[in-house]
Amino acid sequence: AQKVTQAQTEISVVEKEDVTLDCVYETRDTTYYLFWYKQPPSGELVFLIRRNSFDEQNEISGRYSWNFQKSTSSFNFTITASQVVDSAVYFCALSSEYGNKLVFGAGTILRVKS
Amino acid sequence: GAVVSQHPSWVICKSGTSVKIECRSLDFQATTMFWYRQFPKQSLMLMATSNEGSKATYEQGVEKDKFLINHASLTLSTLTVTSAHPEDSSFYICSARRGYGYTFGSGTRLTVV
After folding, report:
1. Which positions ≥6 away from B49 have C-beta within 8 Å?
2. Do A102 and B109 touch (CB under 8 A)?
3. What whole-number distance in Å separates Cα of residue B88 and Cα of residue B110?
């Protein structure tokens, strides 16, 4: 069975601080895909990144960066110099090679205060 | 590209009535669509997977007779909440698979009064 754990229920930071959101996953598949989504108060899910299990390179996109470590089954997300607009719920998710369904973590509420 | 349109964005209905939510893939064909439900301050829970031209596959604990899913074409899937009750009030989100990615609709907030 696939499982995604986001142990941090809520994080509060002050603007310009760096923040890391943790994601730990479980799967028996050798090929799988990991995702991060942002859900602002409007409710719409905003796609941030997709990573397949064979690509362990870290990725940076502007203030966002992701650290994928298969050895610890983790796919952590870091926001550098956080901004108030980053306040949202962030979900980590996992799908199998055949993409039958996407399994979500519980989500982490990020509050960035000015 | 890869846009999924979901309507309505919000709906209020009386207890006992039925509500239909539509999910359309605008610029691609979606053979598989997914329906999720999200209660306040909770994660997205998969309700069912719908495949074009066949019966939907429901997750354990989801009443298939209450949540009717129809995926009659490659661009449209519908979720009908039958005989809605206040406990069905939730945020419903559809998703379409495209390659190894997923595109989500904007969600429908259902309130049953």
Report:
1. A100, A101, B32, B33, B34, B56, B57
2. no
3. 8
Q: What is the mean pLDDT of residues A43-63?
A: 91
Considering only CB atoms, which chain A residues are within 8 Å of B30?
A: none
Tokens, residue B3: 């846009």
- Average pLDDT (B86-112) is 93
Yes or no: say if B68 and B14 are a contact pair by the CB < 8 Å rule. Answer: no
What DSSP character marks residue A80? S
User: What per-residue confidence (pLDDT) applies to B54?
Assistant: 85
Compute the CA torsion angle B69, B30, B102, A69 (nearest 10 deg).
Answer: 110
- Sole residue written with tokens 């997977």: B49
Work out the mean pLDDT of chain B and round it to a whole number. 93
Count of CB atoms situated within 10 Å of the CB of B18: 12
| A19-to-A16, A24, A49, A107, A111 alpha-carbon distances in Å | 9, 17, 17, 15, 10
Pick from B34, B42, B107: CB nearest A44: B107
